[in-house]
Write a structure and sequence with these properties.
It contains five helices and three strands, in the order αβββαααα. By secondary structure, it is an alpha+beta fold. It has a single domain, classed as Alpha-Beta Complex (Sufe protein. Chain: A), CATH 3.90.1010.10. Strands 1-2-3 form a three-stranded antiparallel beta sheet, with helices on one face. α2 packs across α4. The longest helix has 21 residues. The model has no long low-confidence stretch (mean pLDDT 95).
Amino acid sequence: MYSTALLDHFENPRNAGRIATPDAAVQLENPVCGDVLELTAKLEGKRIGEIRFRAKGCVPAIACGSAITELAIGKSLDEARRVSREELIGKLGGLPQASTHASHLAIDTLAALLRGLSTDC
């Protein structure tokens, strides 16, 4: 049902946790299923130097949280804004149709985080 890449991100999440003194932090919840994703980030110059996630929810929600951090780290804010849902899904080797809500939550949370980084800098 789940791809090998998705299960790897779930079982071995990358960048899990919370940055103690982030430049921006955001938490969004999917009101339908209750999944929650928090992202915190620190800039190094004009790039995302560190990004962490905490997630509560289904297997795809946790995997999407892990993968979105890998897609954003090291990027400028403009580059990170161009990370697409399709790119996220591709990184995970696909998502079952019933789990696409997790990719929407991850992309929406990243967008909110980037807005916070833009106004803070």
